[in-house]
Structure to design on (1406 residues):
């Protein structure tokens, strides 16, 4: 009781919730600039702001830019500079159609900051860039810049169902209140659009790829149109996931055959209907013939036939088809990681110009680490989009800290060698290495209706990082982390430096305590929280031993010529490097190789010992995060401090479970003791295996 | 586009979300007192505050009171009076064990305000009363008071599932994040407890009455204990809904027979386990043999046998059993509204002392209007608890404005005549008319994880009203509405007076556009949103015509001697008054009588015309609410103003649908034209009947 009193006294000594930082404002907090000198520097340098576009005409987008500047500068500086719109023909060509140029010139009454762009939306992006510059507490001397997005369509993918359940969503219900729409427009809709625009994101797919055809009925389209109206001033175009069998389910047709004239006519009419309501509709995202979703194969047609059906209907309106490459089948004896490659390479060149093949970063499924998807190097005549997962389906949901920018950078910077060295995935995606036309990057959202949008207070860094990388994939993980930390926790380096460090190390920590050395898909069944190397599912490709292949001889997936030969799907340079355990990086070793338990690693340790040490390092990594965070006591507001502290406590416990369960399981095969320094398991293997997590967040099976 | 630009310009002219009132603070906003004179009056009168208890010992509860006072007075007044704890033996006996006495005395250095109570929790209640007094901007001359709750256990009932879906919940996911508990304790938990304590509520049932046995497993009990720890400083005891068959489902037994020794032992051990974790655990709420829930009937036992099983296990620890009287069966030919009466009156006197029979306000199911439940007048030897529904299952969810205090007062003030005149339901419930011991009032929560807790910004008034009436059922609906309006929107009477008026009229408006003149259970199937007089369900007692009995001759449920004779379940005085259409109030007419379409009403109109006029009045009532609200433009912050405005727009549209659909349906039988002044329907009947609302919020069938 004494302890309890003490805890309570501490809790009560801090300000009540009304004064806490609830996270709702994300990185757009616009806190007053603390340093009087810096504030004066800003106030003096920002007396006049010009928003320059070719026409100089007012618009909702420019109104949004003006409002954001007014609000932000008022809050940060207590200043109200004049902000006026001007017509100006010339903009630096490097700004392109969507970018912006910020210049600082000397006017008669003092400096003039001009945000110029070819389109109004560029001005809005420039306004957010200016505000970010101030939030970072950077000197105005660095303000002048030219910036343009490298990828034309930068899109959120929401796996939100119509009942507001979010598949793999860990931050509450869907943001979209379909029942009250279209009449009631939650304030969040606009703040969501502001958050997207502040990063330069310009599209959003509202509904789950496991799609419900009802979204395409007139009543729902009115609701979609209401959201589109809310988003439009922020340059956000709305997309929908389309269910392939919608012509049957809501159209009254007997077939969804992409070559049936009635089906073709139905989709044309449906698309017309959509564009009447939403003139800037973005297009369709389609998951077909994958995990039970209907598709063209039912009618003996190919993925290209299916995609082109939608493409032809959308083309007159400028809409895009994002056709997902995430396909695999239980009855296919080919290694799961090879199946999409096999199917889609055969279709290269057969897709319409307004189709993009949307490919996950890796060939499996958003594991904590995968090599890049070989399709990125193998479809020169197809526009390829990348799909990243912001929500942490396999990295601890909204409970674990895992900053994903390093993971995404790892893939974007990967060299496919498709057109010689420096044929990076990023250059394939941004369009420099394939046919001209739109380019797309998609991110599966981690948002929900929790007060702070993302559940874990530090998970908003992933939303931020996705948006920033979508704009410019050459930014470093460190730059992005530092921006976010400063904007979210204030520019005090005593806070932002350790938080940046925590973020940067966090993903590798998760890899180590869950799936080190290239292990993959050994998580618990269904909900994907926690360890499950023992999982035997109803089909082999959902069973863990399909992937870890542990046996008395060793561990790891044999994907060389003696195994599934998945290495053959990569360029010869990579196949050679990864195909040899001596040159394959440790991080991918067990992805490509089944190796003996006593295989000698670079560290000098044998595989079993190295595996155990990595698991231990993962646990210790979380403890390091805890130490870093605890040192921020008093420097971070109490509400966020306590929440992250408790989340890290849970993460440490979960990390120990991962380590103990996996090592106990694999020890059955290795028959070796844990090396020195690796803590003994808390329970026996049966205890971990008996655990059944019910009603896990974000898992469709529990709803 | 012009119109769109205008709308946007208006929206952007208002402050951004960061400055809006998001509703999170509920009625505990503690806004600065606007009038300098009044503020000075408060500051001068509140320099010293004494918290007086018999021991004068510090405690978590007193720390909470002190913190709340410090925070509230600082925010409202910018003042920091001394707050000290003193030992004082004497408290006004009228304060009882849970109440408080506030006195103002002259000390040497100025006035001293003393909050004295027999228990620490009374001091906390007194502190909230003091803060409410200030929020209401009332003069300190009225501060001295003695107050005590009339009902000993004032309990929230959450119909929250373990997957965070809230049955009949319209404000997002459950507040309880079971996955992250017990480690992560959301800030909301404490703010929830603060809200409850501010009203004097002292208990909460965390999970749905359609219970999942898993809540009783060790892992979940640890999570429950974590919530109990968060709530304890605010005097909130935790209760759980217990699933009758838990001994089978999680206990490994073959039976749940309440007289089986193994079952008895299992529950005793389970209760021991709970009290070890939660020493102040409140007890169990049980829904048994009702709507598919398991119960004692499976074993040939009675409800009393079932309740007493739990009671005996809980008694040594001081726990209570809340046994729900909401039972009815499809295969029972007795009128549904008579079935619980028949079953439970036969058991009067058979329940243990720590059992309370928890009875809904009316005999059917939370309709917009019902007569009181006849059980309240018929079980003199049983402790009876009342269950009210704060969430608006049949009154428009979180989309319609319906202030429910008048509905609850109507029932609480109803005279059962059980022990002569003035045997009101309230007096039965508060214990004055039945065996001594604990008394209970329960309210089915309307909370969720939406930012403002209750979805509709005005729906928090129902949470507030439930709590205030639970403390003192003699408060008027008007008093409570005025308190809430002032605390929630500020003390400016230009705002609080019209909002109070809107609240007070709103429930009757909903009655009129949905189920006027005593009509009931004619809503759409399953989700209960909107009209469904035509519904024919799989069982008669879920079909609308079971209740409205419309035919060529007339309309209404025949419940006199020639009908189901439900009137016989009431006292002779009531049976006589309600049994005669000439003396039965219009509001209950069709509840008790099947009357010809040309029956002459008090208004002079025939029944058909009166029915139509009432529906029209309902629609016009919503339009009146819209006008009242629109007049508050500029007086209410933009965020709440816009949201309520759009909600009222939707409500008006929904009200028209109710009117048009019901009148078209009943017109098939009345064969009469709509009277003058009643607007023509927008569509034909088939259109309304064809509407299928999918994925409605809060409806279990859609998850």
């Amino acid at each position: 009781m004494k302890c309890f009193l003490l805890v309570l006294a501490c809790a009560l000594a801090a300000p009540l919730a009304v004064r806490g930082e609830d996270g709702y404002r994300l990185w757009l907090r616009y806190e007053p600039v603390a340093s009087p000198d810096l504030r004066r520097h800003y106030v003096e340098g920002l007396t006049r702001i010009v928003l320059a576009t070719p026409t100089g005409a007012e618009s909702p987008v420019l109104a949004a830019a003006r409002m954001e500047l007014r609000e932000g500068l008022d809050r940060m500086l207590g200043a109200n500079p004049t902000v006026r719109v001007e017509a100006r023909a010339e903009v630096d060509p490097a700004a392109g159609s969507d970018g912006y140029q910020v210049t600082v010139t000397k006017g008669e009454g003092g400096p003039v900051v001009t945000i110029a762009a070819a389109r109004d939306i560029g001005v809005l992006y420039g306004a957010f860039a200016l505000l970010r510059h101030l939030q970072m507490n950077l000197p105005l001397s660095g303000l002048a810049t030219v910036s343009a997005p490298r990828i034309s369509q930068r899109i959120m993918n929401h796996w939100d169902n119509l009942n507001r359940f979010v598949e793999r969503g860990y931050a509450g219900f869907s943001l979209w209140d379909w029942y009250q729409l279209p009449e009631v427009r939650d304030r969040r809709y606009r703040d969501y659009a502001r958050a997207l625009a502040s990063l330069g994101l310009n599209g959003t797919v509202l509904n789950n790829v496991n799609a419900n055809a009802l979204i395409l009925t007139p009543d729902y389209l009115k609701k979609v149109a209401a959201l589109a109206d809310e988003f439009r001033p922020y340059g956000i175009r709305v997309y929908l996931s389309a269910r392939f069998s919608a012509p049957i389910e809501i159209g009254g047709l007997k077939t969804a055959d992409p070559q049936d004239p009635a089906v073709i006519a139905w989709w044309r009419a449906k698309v017309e209907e959509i564009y009447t309501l939403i003139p800037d509709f973005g297009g369709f995202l389609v998951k077909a013939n994958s995990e039970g979703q209907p598709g063209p194969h039912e009618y003996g047609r190919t993925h290209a036939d299916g995609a082109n059906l939608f493409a032809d209907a959308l083309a007159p309106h400028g809409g895009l088809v994002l056709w997902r490459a995430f396909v695999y089948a239980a009855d296919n004896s080919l290694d799961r990681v090879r199946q999409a490659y096999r199917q889609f390479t055969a279709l290269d060149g057969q897709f319409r110009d307004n189709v993009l093949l949307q490919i996950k970063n890796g060939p499996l499924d958003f594991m904590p680490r995968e090599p890049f998807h070989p399709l990125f190097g193998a479809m020169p005549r197809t526009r390829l989009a990348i799909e990243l997962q912001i929500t942490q389906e396999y990295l601890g949901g909204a409970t674990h800290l895992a900053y994903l920018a390093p993971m995404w950078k790892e893939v974007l910077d990967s060299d496919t060698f498709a057109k010689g060295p420096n044929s990076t995935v990023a250059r394939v995606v941004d369009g420099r290495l394939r046919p001209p036309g739109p380019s797309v990057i998609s991110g599966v959202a981690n948002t929900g209706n929790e007060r702070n949008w993302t559940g874990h207070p530090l998970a908003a860094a992933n939303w931020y990082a996705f948006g920033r990388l979508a704009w410019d994939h050459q930014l470093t993980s460190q730059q992005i982390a530092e921006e976010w930390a400063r904007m979210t926790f204030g520019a005090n380096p005593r806070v932002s430096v350790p938080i940046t460090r925590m973020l940067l190390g966090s993903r590798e920590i998760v890899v180590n305590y869950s799936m080190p050395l290239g292990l993959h898909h050994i998580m618990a069944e269904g909900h994907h929280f926690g360890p499950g190397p023992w999982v035997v599912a109803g089909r082999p490709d959902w069973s863990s031993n399909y992937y870890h292949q542990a046996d008395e001889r060793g561990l790891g997936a044999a994907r060389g010529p003696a195994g599934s030969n998945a290495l053959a799907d990569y360029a010869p340079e990579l196949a050679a490097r990864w195909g040899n355990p001596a040159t394959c990086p440790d991080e991918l070793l067990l992805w490509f190789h089944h190796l003996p338990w006593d295989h000698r690693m670079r560290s000098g340790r044998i595989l079993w010992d190295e595996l155990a040490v990595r698991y231990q390092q993962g646990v210790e990594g979380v403890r390091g995060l805890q130490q870093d965070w605890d040192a921020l006591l008093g420097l971070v507001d109490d509400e966020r401090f306590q929440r992250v502290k408790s989340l890290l406590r849970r993460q440490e416990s979960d990390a120990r479970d991962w380590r103990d369960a996996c090592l106990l399981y694999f020890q059955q095969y290795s028959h070796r003791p844990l090396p020195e320094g690796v803590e003994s398991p808390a329970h026996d293997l049966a205890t971990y295996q008996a655990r059944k997590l019910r009603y896990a967040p974000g898992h469709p099976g529990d709803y």
Chain A touches chain B through 68 residues (CB under 8 Å). The first helix of chain A runs from residue 2 to 13. Residues 1-19 of chain A have pLDDT under 50 and may be disordered. The first strand of chain A starts at residue 48 and ends at 53.
